[in-house]
TrEMBL record:
A GO cellular component annotation in the UniProt record: plasma membrane
Species annotation: Streptomyces alfalfae
Keyword hit for Nucleotide-binding: yes
Top-level taxon in the UniProt lineage: Bacteria
Domain ABC transporter, first and last residues per copy: 1-238
Subunit comment: The complex is composed of two ATP-binding proteins (NikD and NikE), two transmembrane proteins (NikB and NikC) and a solute-binding protein (NikA).
Enzyme Commission number: 7.2.2.11
Protein name: Nickel import system ATP-binding protein NikD
Localization per Swiss-Prot or TrEMBL: Cell membrane
Any one Gene Ontology molecular-function term assigned to this protein's record: ATP binding
GO terms (BP aspect): peptide transport
Entry keyword ATP-binding: yes
Family note: Belongs to the ABC transporter superfamily.
Length: 303
């Protein structure tokens, strides 16, 4: 950054994602979720520095050249439902014309079939056919979201990144949208679902990664995370407990600035389990990066 400060946006993150699998990436605003997605698309800002690798098949997405990324990766091998669809849609073209272009370029659909194919693509993302001739500025946030989802599904990319694809949608549309994403993944594509909507994550994810202050602090199977025995990391537990349908108690305090991360556990300042051990950085052990994870025992014997 100007002035010489560094933002640690994504640190030491490591995970794999198999075909047919959906990984939900959750964590509060500013923890690094979208920067991670941008890295996988080769869309990091000019001043970003990267280390490590992100392999899609044999291709390292972090070091691939722009030509490869533009011609064969974005849209074709890695699809994106962007976090701000209104900013990603082409402002001077109707939704119909953008869908038709994607169908032509990515799916090889030709003229007489294009119109029906565009309507079908819109329908998959619950975008109403009556609004297809609108320009992006004429769409509500929720409609722009659905247009972006329809566009992202067209390329049949083996890896789909969906960055908060359900913002601004009502519950039934949220369910319908994530179900469609899940259906699209099927057995041979992978989905990285970035979301603040834990109910949506629970609905379709196989595994959950919880990010805090640029690091993945918990990576675990979704049924164990949302059901019994529940999250192991105190932050992940706090996220779930903050839900209105659970305890409805917020996590006290604020996350640290990513320009000045502590040397040890970044959550320690907010954690009621913290002690002197937390001055050292915890590694991700058995799915949780914590010195004092919740242990997986049932609270009380079942009747
Ligand atoms: N171009 C940039 N230059 C400097 N810092 C940036 C840039 N883009 C993002 N950041 C910083 O990187 C950190 C992670 O941002 P990111 O957008 O990945 O968060 P997020 O988890 O997606 O949040 P949200 O849930 O609000 O979308 C933030 O502190 C953000 O301010
Ligand atoms: Ni984001």
């Amino acid at each position: 950054m100007r002035g010489g400060s560094h933002v640690s946006a994504v640190t030491d993150v490591s995970f794999d994602l198999a075909a047919g699998e959906c990984l939900a990436l959750v964590g509060e605003s500013g923890c690094g979720k979208s920067v991670l997605a941008s890295a996988l698309l080769g869309l990091l800002p000019e001043n970003a520095e990267t280390a490590g690798s992100a392999l899609l098949g044999g291709l390292d997405l972090l070091t691939a050249d722009e030509r490869t990324l533009a011609r064969s990766v974005r849209g074709r091998r890695v699809g994106l439902v962007p976090q701000s669809p209104a900013a990603h849609l082409t402002p001077v073209r109707t939704v119909r014309s953008q869908l038709e272009e994607s169908l032509r370029e990515l799916a090889g659909v030709r003229k007489p079939a294009l119109r029906a194919a565009a309507e079908q693509a819109a329908e998959r993302a619950a975008f109403p056919a009556g609004h297809l001739d609108r320009y992006p500025h004429e769409l509500s946030g929720g409609l722009a979201q659905r247009a972006a989802t329809a566009l992202a599904l067209i390329g049949d990319a083996p890896l789909l990144l969906a960055d908060e694809p359900t913002t601004g949608l009502d519950r039934d549309l949220v369910d319908r949208t994530v179900d469609e994403l899940r259906r699209h993944v099927g057995d041979d594509r992978a989905l990285l679902l970035i979301t603040h909507d834990l109910a949506a994550a629970e609905r379709i994810a196989d595994r959950v990664a919880v990010m805090y202050a640029s690091r993945v602090v918990e990576l675990t199977d979704a049924p164990a995370f949302f059901g019994a025995p529940g999250p192991r990391h105190p932050y992940a537990r706090g996220l779930l407990d903050a839900l209105p349908e659970r305890e409805f108690t917020p996590i006290p305090g604020m996350p640290p600035e990513l320009t000045a991360l502590p040397a040890g556990c970044a959550f320690a300042a907010r954690c009621d389990r913290a002690d002197e051990a937390c001055a050292a950085l915890p590694g991700l052990v058995a799915g949780a990066a914590c010195h004092h994870p919740h242990v997986n025992v049932l609270e009380s014997p079942r009747a």
